[in-house]
Amino acid sequence: MLNRTPRHEKIIQLIRESGFMPIDELARVLDVTPQTIRRDINQLCEENILRRYHGGASLGSSVENEDYFSRKNKLQSEKAHIADVIAAHIPDNASLFMSIGTTIEAVALALVKSHKNLSIITNNIHVASIVSSRSDYTVMITSGVVRAVDGGITGVATIDFINQFKVDYAVLGASSIEQDGSLLDFDYKEVSVMQAMMKNARIRYLAVDHSKFGRNALVRMGDITEFHALFTDEELSAALGKKLADHGVKWYLADKEDE
């Protein structure tokens, strides 16, 4: 797990502002050695936040996400902790939308261990497979086109299906959270589905691990203030924490003390 430092955040900020930064220039601005900058960049590249090129780095791709199995195998413990906290905020006998994403799949695993009589509507075939193991659950999988890359279902038929319902909770993820609270993703069709889920849920929960903060993505999904609560695994920046407080959005930090 990458423990994001203030220097990491400054590197991301500088590269975001310029598009590309040479290693020597980053070392000069931050008053550290080029070797230190190379180590920092390597760490940030591991989480797809940056891409390294000869002599420098740019932001990670804004148009293409990591492949499904790479995402599924990353930060598994952190996602499980986030999932446990979310599950504690959902009662038995509730109805839910659950979206595409490996963190949402972790939430599904947490729910089947502890919750009774849930009604779940999902466009994620992996979530559907997990929750359908419970005979007391009602599980509905949306219409639409299945993406071969990750088992996500999107399209106009998906949105039409979702718009037939009004549920208690929407549990959603995002590919990127910018420091101003903007939520971004890579696929406009997936974003349209999540926006329909947000519109048709009484309570909206956002589940993201720390690697999503400051990441680059192309499609605007909405703003973090459109959710009732944020669940994550690391402390927020002061600016983002203030924005949530100003808009009455709660946020919860996954407890890692038992590791």
UniProtKB/TrEMBL annotation:
One of its GO terms (molecular function) is DNA binding. It holds the Pfam family HTH_DeoR. InterPro entries: Carb_Metab_HTH_regulators, DeoR-like_C, DeoR_HTH, NagB/RpiA_transferase-like, Tscrpt_reg_HTH_DeoR_CS, WH-like_DNA-bd_sf, WH_DNA-bd_sf. Gene3D superfamilies: 4-hydroxybutyrate coenzyme like domains, Winged helix-like DNA-binding domain superfamily/Winged helix DNA-binding domain. Residues 4-59 form the HTH deoR-type domain. Coiled coil: none annotated. The keyword DNA-binding applies. Keywords: DNA-binding, Repressor, Transcription, Transcription regulation. PANTHER family: GLYCEROL-3-PHOSPHATE REGULON REPRESSOR (PTHR30363:SF4), HTH-TYPE TRANSCRIPTIONAL REGULATOR SRLR-RELATED (PTHR30363). This is DeoR family transcriptional regulator. It comes from Paralysiella testudinis. The lineage of its organism: Bacteria, Pseudomonadati, Pseudomonadota, Betaproteobacteria, Neisseriales.
